[in-house]
Amino acid sequence: MSNDDDLRVDRVTSVQALDGLEPHWRALEELADCNSLFLGWDWQRLWWRHYGGERQLCVLVAWRDDRLVGVLPLYLETHRAFGLLPVRKLLPIGAGGDTSPDDLGMLCEPTVGEAAGRALVDHLLHHVSGWQLIDLVDLPVGGILVRCMAEAFATKPDLMQSTGVNRITYGTAFGLGQLPPKPQPQPSRSHRPKAPPIRTGVWRALQPCGRKGAD
């Protein structure tokens, strides 16, 4: 658990605890300044029912007193890099399986949107352990998660290192000039047309920070 002023951030890791969020999540949907059905309770819960499998829930929730004001739905899975090396990867719920929506990210109440977003990102970067890669894909351009992640790196440059074990990758929504630009491929000797840019690429390595254990 972590605190940002009067906000409390908790982590949900079990299906039972996730189901307990339903009435709060639905109430937040009615207030949130977001028209993405992919962040709604029905779609998120349905996706997890069909694709959760051996993946591990890591849903971050921000509370003000007993009112849910922010949700960052993530999950942790083991991915084998190059088919060999196991890598523990965090992704948004909804990315993976055979689905690829474009409006994932974070659901926040408008009156506390930025504060809730900052609290959730701070908890993600400093208090969630066990991951080696955060793969932020399928995010809307200009979304609150994009802004809060960019702000975290701009105000805390010590988080960003050129080497390290943990990495963060970004989808096309991060191509806003707020973060270091993705490396551009060099022209080939044959001057063939450049291949389209990949949707996700590693920009920076993130050194482990904060406490090593989970809250």
Automatic annotation (TrEMBL):
Region feature (Disordered): 176-215
**Where does the source fall among the domains of life?**
Bacteria
This chain's protein is named: Acetyltransferase (GNAT) domain
Q: Which organism is this entry from?
A: Thiomonas bhubaneswarensis
